[in-house]
């Protein structure tokens, strides 16, 4: 329906119709936050499996969705896949390059690894897993940019009362956790405001383990199923774009917004900050 809504406005039909279509889309958007079970059963391995399968049968994930899902939420699933795969990956790419540019030593270290890996293989525009393994520093830069510019809040609805410290959070409330603030806990990230890719040396990335306290991809059953794919595509993209283009920073880095919603009313739960919301 969102696509219909866009088409309608470009045809200059009435804004009333646009509003109606938009209301339908908006109402259904929350269903877009749930992938069909088919994609999530067990673990995120299924989604990886599907990516491989789809490559094999030459269909994109969206084409596959369109041909296999027949319920009315199809546009929502499609929108989710478009949104989830781009909305975070694009800003993180921007921030990775911006942080690297504003730290000349970081930039030089990364470029040394990129140049060495590219020249050794004589590669111009293709990267293999082996090439990526020769540039771990670039991956650390991406994860460090993600730590500092992680998505604002991750939400869960309370389905049965839960005790947090001295509070009983009733069912129906929304619980929100902020990766932004979790990533500024000096216990897990010393000098948290500093862009220090080296801190990722401690993470066992070969075994797909992040640093403790890193929650940019959420957690539990509904954490981001695209996380390892995202890191790999960012790794490839950042390495290739830095190899092919020379960047110059024209302005100093913008500071993150000073106001983070609900900053004052948090509970400290284990290492995370958690908020609870009452529906009114
Ligand atoms: C840097 C890139 C990315 C970041 C930071 C990111 C982050 C997140 C976060 C925080 C969530 C919510 C997790 C939760 O509620 O616990 C999420 C959900 C999701 N992500 Fe990502 N993501 C990224 C890239 C991707 C990519 C490339 C894909 C697909 C190819 C993807 C697919 C999804 C999907 C489908 C969900 C919804 C899962 C569900 O509700 O069950 N993401 N992502």
Automatic annotation (TrEMBL):
<keyword id="KW-0472">Membrane</keyword>
<keyword id="KW-0753">Steroid metabolism</keyword>
<dbReference type="GO" id="GO:0006699">
    <property type="term" value="P:bile acid biosynthetic process"/>
</dbReference>
<keyword id="KW-0408">Iron</keyword>
<dbReference type="InterPro" id="IPR001128">
    <property type="entry name" value="Cyt_P450"/>
</dbReference>
<dbReference type="InterPro" id="IPR050529">
    <property type="entry name" value="CYP450_sterol_14alpha_dmase"/>
</dbReference>
<keyword id="KW-0443">Lipid metabolism</keyword>
<dbReference type="InterPro" id="IPR002403">
    <property type="entry name" value="Cyt_P450_E_grp-IV"/>
</dbReference>
<feature type="transmembrane region" description="Helical">
    <location>
        <begin position="82"/>
        <end position="101"/>
    </location>
</feature>
<protein>
    <recommendedName>
        <fullName>24-hydroxycholesterol 7-alpha-hydroxylase</fullName>
    </recommendedName>
</protein>
<comment type="similarity">
    <text>Belongs to the cytochrome P450 family.</text>
</comment>
<dbReference type="GO" id="GO:0005506">
    <property type="term" value="F:iron ion binding"/>
</dbReference>
<keyword id="KW-1133">Transmembrane helix</keyword>
<keyword id="KW-0479">Metal-binding</keyword>
<dbReference type="GO" id="GO:0008396">
    <property type="term" value="F:oxysterol 7-alpha-hydroxylase activity"/>
</dbReference>
<feature type="binding site" description="axial binding residue">
    <location>
        <position position="224"/>
    </location>
    <ligand>
        <name>heme</name>
    </ligand>
</feature>
<dbReference type="GO" id="GO:0042632">
    <property type="term" value="P:cholesterol homeostasis"/>
</dbReference>
<keyword id="KW-0812">Transmembrane</keyword>
<dbReference type="InterPro" id="IPR036396">
    <property type="entry name" value="Cyt_P450_sf"/>
</dbReference>
<dbReference type="Pfam" id="PF00067">
    <property type="entry name" value="p450"/>
</dbReference>
<keyword id="KW-0349">Heme</keyword>
<feature type="transmembrane region" description="Helical">
    <location>
        <begin position="44"/>
        <end position="62"/>
    </location>
</feature>
<dbReference type="GO" id="GO:0020037">
    <property type="term" value="F:heme binding"/>
</dbReference>
